[in-house]
Amino acid sequence: MTSKPRPVVLTIAGLDPSGGAGIVADIKTIASLGCFPAAALTSITFQNTTGVFGAQHQTAATLRAQVMPVVQDVAVAAAKIGMLPTAEIVAEVARLFAEEKLPSPVVDPVVVATSGDVLIDEEAFEILKTRLFPLARIVTPNIPEAEKLAGFSIDSEADMKRAAEAILLLGPGAVLVKGGHRKFSGDALDVLFDQQGIFTEFRSEYLEVGEIHGSGCTLSAAIAANLGSEMNLDQAVASAKKYVTDLIRGLKAAPRIGHGAAPL
After folding, report:
1. Global confidence as pTM
2. Looking at the predicted structure, is the pLDDT value of residue 16 above 60?
């Protein structure tokens, strides 16, 4: 009797050499959740827990050259997209997902690093919204990213829902506005809104551990892994949120790594 192969989950993201965020965090997460990670780099960044000190971005040709051998060889069960630094890269990713047999991706619209460093240019940001969001199964902005996408400040739970509604108009299958950057009603609140017009709230204890490096990457990768494991969207988000919350809780007792934001 043969065992069922692990679902292949493809991540397309940037490299954080310190291992806290980006494609390294994605690979760790996908593997820990029982899936097989495949990966393509969009950018080699020069960073650690304290900041980003530069980057060498990939071209459309080198990105395609990474992805095509994978999709020609294996069936990709789910996909996650992270850092897309240039218009050339965003447009190529949109082409790949529109033309190839790839599942609708989890799109983490990485705009600004925890350190405050900008990780995408304005032209790329516009293409992200207009060409990639309509292909997405779900987009997962944090509050600063949701504010940029929606065009207004988010100061309450009602604002989170209003932002989710505005972002859904850009065409994704669903929007998850992550509330970890703000504490509303004493909780860590994430709000999911889908094309059926249904809001789902995911609440957990707000854990005071300071700045965290890589939580957004980890959450979106976990959602992709859960979708690859055939969970429905609500289940995938709930399980991913619990996974990240447990990791954050573990930081309270873990020895500190680095001199900046704590990596998961």
Report:
1. 0.95
2. yes
